[in-house]
Each structure stands twice: as structure tokens, then as C-alpha cells.
Amino acid sequence: MSGAGAPDFFYREAQRLGYVARSAFKLLQIQKQYKLIRPGSSVLDLGCAPGAWLQVACQSLGPLKNGGVVVGIDLKKVKVPPLHCDARVQTISADVMKLPKDQVRALSPQQKGFSVILSDMCPLVSGITTKDAALSAELGMQALHLAVGRSLSIFPSDNSQKEQSDDSSCGLNDSGILRAGGHLVIKLLESEDVKEINQISKPLFRKASWLRPKATRPSSREIYLICQDLKPKANL
User: Fold this and answer.
1) Which of 65, 76, 98, 187 is catalytic?
2) Active site includes 162?
3) Which residue windows are transmembrane per the record (predicted)?
4) Is 3.40.50.150 the CATH classification of the domain at 9-235?
């Protein structure tokens, strides 16, 4: 069990239903409200440990005959959970902050990118509110950059960071790995920084909205940015 305190309802339900963590119910609620993952979807799960979102994503694909894939990436080596997952799920151990986009794209079907990107990445919490929020925003920005590949919009106030990002993850190709019409979910810690990420996301997607899932612990500042229907570059 992660976190402090006695087991709560969502922890007990996760145990009962075979999910490896209570966080499964966060994605279950997102999926119920927004229906981002459909049969045949290609899903990228950033920060996939311990694997609960892999389980929900695979379930959301429906029966094996429907096709689709789920790829999880995490700094830790994550074993695919035996329950609620099938052969469509795979994981790799890598640092998303340093992983070139072309290598991530190569993991997608026909190397054409993913239709859904889920970022449940969270920094190592220091207890210093401003520091933790800044680190969370940095991870969120990286997820957005990886998805849309429009680096000039991602780091508007830090040219050195933009150039580094261009060199390390874009090369000559500045396209992201999220397909046009695709969806992006980013976990963030509430702060002024998240407003900037929201403002950057709005013109890129048809719709961007906030959600605090019911399974979020009362003491947590976690909030999710739900970005739906990525616009083609020609429409920006």
C-alpha cells in the first residue's frame, strides 16, 4: 500500500478487484467520463509503475480480438500485472526526460504514434510545496512536448531548455508522437504553473478540462488535465 494511514475504500476495492494499486480508480473515472480509450486504441502510459493504469487501459481496449496496444514507460522496471492485462501490454524501463521521441514513436503500431497518452508521472516529493509543484510542472511539460512536439510553445520563457529539448528529443523532426485527434492526460500538482500548461494546451486541442478524481487522497494536491482531440498542425 502506498501513502500513509489506514486502508481506505479505494485500496480495499483495488485488492478485491485485482488491481495493483488504488490509482486504478482514477483512470476508471477518467475513462467513464471521457471515454478516451476505445477498442483498437494505441495507449502510451508514462510513469506506469506499479501498473494499475496498464490494467485499466488494457481493459478499456476490450477483448483481444479488438486489437490495440498499451506501452508503459517508467524509471523502474515494471512487470506487467497478470490480472486484467494480456499480450497487448508491454513495459520498458527508461527516463522519459531523456528519451528521444523517435524511439518512443518506434514503440507504436506501424511507428505512426499513439492515439492516447497518459502521464501519471510524479516527482519524488520533498515536502517543499513550491519545489514539488515546479518539478511536477516540468514533468507535465515534458509529457506535453512528447505528445505534440511543438517545442516553441512548450518552453516560452526558457530558451536554453527549449534548445536542449530540441536537440535531445526532436532532431530534425519536431512532430510529436500523439496522433491528430488523439487525447492526452497529465497529472499535475496544483500551483500557478499548471495554469500556464493549461493555456498552452488549449489552442492545441479541441477541449482541455480539469478533473480531480474521487480516488484522490484528501491531502493530495493532484489534479489531472484532460486534453481531448489534438488538432492537426494545419489548423493551428
Assistant:
1) 187
2) no
3) none
4) yes
